[in-house]
Amino acid sequence: MRTRIAEIRETDTPEAKAAIAEAADILKRGGLVAFPTETVYGLGADAFREEACARIYEAKGRPSDNPLIVHIAETAALNRLTEAADPRVLRLAEAFWPGPLTVILKRSAEVPDRVTGGLDTVAVRFPSHPVARALILAAGGYIAAPSANRSGRPSPTKAAHVIEDLEGRVDMILDGGDTTVGLESTIVDLTETDARILRPGMIGGEEIARVLQTTEAAEAAPKVTAAKEQEAEIALAPGMKYTHYAPKGEMTVVSGDKEQVILYINRRAAGSDKIIGVIASDENAPFYRADVIISCGSRTDAAEIAQRLYAVLREMDARGAEEILCEDFTEADSTGAIANRLRKASGGRRVFVEADGTIR
Ligand code: TXA
Ligand code: MG
């Protein structure tokens, strides 16, 4: 298959409009289009065409029980996806949509099983990226899309990542430049009495709780809990049980005393004949001695670290890192989203170094 690639920087030029119309046409005919959102690139199909959605799994090499997120471009589009209107959804929609929040709702009978993986719930998100919004509207209002990476690779934050993973496997790629958020949306499950965070993202549980609580009587205020990672991985968000975001090199997250972290990493690099990569903060990067050193941003700037992380992981692969040692970035990570992705990329491998150099 030949993949059309169109660059779009502003949505209202004649060229951009033509490219979006062409992409919408492909979707309406059952094809696949990769497109930018503010979080990561998505691989889209018309959500109401089962056979088109089936092609997403083929193109990604994705296990077929892992459900897709339906992307909409107006809150009213919820009506076709879910039967009972939940007041909590409208409150969250008002506060966070368009934006990086996905809600899990009881599905309507019309949503294809191919989208929900046979569950009685559906994931819905209203992205803020102008290209995504224009495309969704032009294509009829409902695009089912997972992240546009091959299964097991980091989610794409640049069109080049999508091209690397999916060229020749999809009909069209819309290149909207680098994504601004960089990590996938927060997923909140609203199918039970207590809202539950299934996947942390840059919108945090506390913010969500605050919005849900404002209009409730205090004693009836809904709670927001973070699903225990293990529980979520197995039952709740089926996708969380698969290996995710894994770079080719074996990755270890190193946390603890700042100076001792640097000493520890330099010692590991000096004592190894493998190609060692270090994922560093701007503040510490000058102090490392290793084969590949890439800074992911300032230790105190979560938005910057999130925006760059997946590109850094891919860069480590491109530069042949066989072992990756990564700072933990906890100072900036108020929502837990960065720690969650580092845990997944590292398969949970971590080392803690005390101020006296003791290693735990
Ligand atoms: O930011 C994002 O959410 C990006 C962009 C493209 O919108 N999309 C994304 O999709 O990250 P994906 O497929 O890579 O991740 C979707 C996650 C998976 O872990 C999946 O299991 C979960 O959402 N999910 C989908 N439907 C679900 C449902 N009904 N119940 C629970 N989890 C669900
Ligand atoms: Mg994904």
Q: What features would you describe in this structure?
A:
This protein has 360 residues and is of the alpha/beta class. It has two domains: 4-175, Alpha-Beta Complex (DHBP synthase); 250-353, 3-Layer(aba) Sandwich (Rossmann fold). The protein contains eleven helices and 16 strands. The strands form two sheets. It has an eleven-stranded mixed sheet, sandwiched between helices. Strands 14-13-15-12-16 form a five-stranded parallel sheet, with helices on both faces. Helix 1 (14-28) packs across helix 5. 48% of the residues are buried. Residues 216-221 and 230-235 have low confidence and may be disordered. Residues 37, 39-40, 42, 66-69, 100, 102, 104, 116, 119, 121-123, 125, 127, 145-147, 184-185, 187, 198, 236-240 line the site of threonylcarbamoyladenylate. Threonylcarbamoyladenylate (TXA) binds at residues 37, 39-40, 42, 66-69, 100, 102, 104, 116, 119, 121-123, 125, 127, 145-147, 184-185, 187, 198, 236-240.
Could you tell me how far the N terminus lies from the C terminus, measured between alpha carbons in angstroms? Answer: 51 Å
Strand order of the largest sheet: 1-8-2-3-7-4-6-5-9-10-11
Average predicted local confidence, pLDDT: 93
Radius of gyration: 21 Å
